[in-house]
Automatic annotation (TrEMBL):
Annotated Pfam families: TctC
Family designation: Belongs to the UPF0065 (bug) family.
Signal peptide range in chain numbering: 1-23
Species this protein is from: Comamonas thiooxydans
Keyword presence, Secreted: no
Gene3D superfamilies given in the database record: Bordetella uptake gene, domain 1 (3.40.190.150), Periplasmic binding protein-like II (3.40.190.10)
Keywords: Signal
Protein known as: TctC
Length: 323
């Protein structure tokens, strides 16, 4: 290891959280900002705030969450991609921000998002198809029957255009040969409120924001669009178990640094995140809100993302229904 790398590592281990290019005193005093592309109160926001609290303890620095809502997370991702790569700005992202939105929108800024530095995968959560407690839709087979009875068709809410929930909804409609009307919102909280307010018929969401409604029976789950059942709600079947193939996606969450961040910085943060997810209190908090720890470190996260990229590109190449 050369002198420059040694110096960088020493600064990072002292909690400065900076790359060599930006290693100045002003940066070392700045708080760390975790940017989320969805509104406060939603699943990603809930995770980000729990994570920020624990990361602040590890780094001995102030860590806070900033919500930059819009375009299915693209606004937040583009903002972080262009930020200074000094470790003071992080992105908490899901497949929507990293893969789906860039492919879906064909944005000129997607190249910068693709060049962000992956740090670590933190968690995953099931994508749930939910209906109101008084809805007649309890099975996947009920969707086609309900659509035929409804002159305006069936509508579903999601966290936004280009979100994973949007993709799942479109994929389900195609698989069932049913026209589903997509109604996008700024995040899971407002999408959930729209279902409860009878503005839409169905909702695709991560488990975290709708768990209380499932427990109170104000909503019921039709199925899970993930490969595995939820640990918290093990009675909810997956779509695959109901005989529906090709509508199974992992709703993962991970931390990214801006384009140009050093590998030393990413390695340091990855190690600190590993320490965070070993905290029993943090794990319990995640599981109580519907997330499950699914950690992959800096070295493991990159090949995981490469595999995910191929999955989504193949999907969009095969099915043009999102364009």
């Amino acid at each position: 290891m050369n002198f420059a790398a040694t110096l960088i590592r020493a600064c990072l281990l002292c909690g400065l959280l900076m790359s060599a290019a930006c290693a100045d005193k002003a940066a070392s005093r700045q708080p760390v900002k975790i940017v989320v592309g969805f509104e406060a109160g939603g699943a990603m926001d809930t995770l980000a705030r729990a994570f920020a609290t624990q990361l602040s303890v590890r780094l001995q620095r102030s860590v806070y969450v900033e919500n930059r809502v819009g375009a299915g997370g693209a606004i937040a991702a583009n903002y972080v991609a262009k930020s200074r790569p000094d470790g003071n700005t992080l992105l908490l992202a899901s497949p929507a921000e990293i893969f789906i939105n860039p492919i879906y929108t064909r944005s000129q800024e997607s190249g910068e998002v693709a060049d962000m530095v992956p740090v670590a995968k933190i968690s995953s959560a099931p994508i749930v198809l939910a209906a109101r407690g008084d809805s007649a839709i309890h099975q996947l087979s009920d969707i086609a029957a309900a659509a035929q009875k409804n002159a305006r068709g069936l509508s579903f809410a999601s966290s936004g255009i280009g979100s994973l929930q949007h993709l799942v909804g479109e994929s389900l409609g195609k698989a069932l040969s049913v026209e589903l009307l997509h109604v996008p919102y700024g995040g899971a909280a407002s999408a959930t409120a729209s279902l409860m307010g009878k503005q839409v018929d169905l909702l695709f969401a991560g488990l975290a924001p709708i768990a209380p409604h499932l427990q109170s029976h104000k909503m019921h789950a039709v199925g899970i669009a993930s490969a595995h059942r939820s640990k918290r709600f093990p009675d909810i079947p997956t779509f695959q178990e109901k005989g529906l193939q090709g509508v199974s996606f992992e709703y993962w969450q991970g931390i990214f640094l801006p384009k140009g961040a050093s590998s030393e910085l990413a390695l340091f943060l990855s190690a600190e995140i590993n320490n965070v997810i070993k905290e029993t209190g943090f794990v319990d908090q995640l599981e109580n809100t519907g997330f499950e720890v699914a950690y992959k470190d800096y070295k493991q996260f990159k090949p995981f993302l490469q595999a995910e990229d191929q999955i989504y590109r193949s999907l969009f190449k095969r099915d043009s229904f999102l364009y």
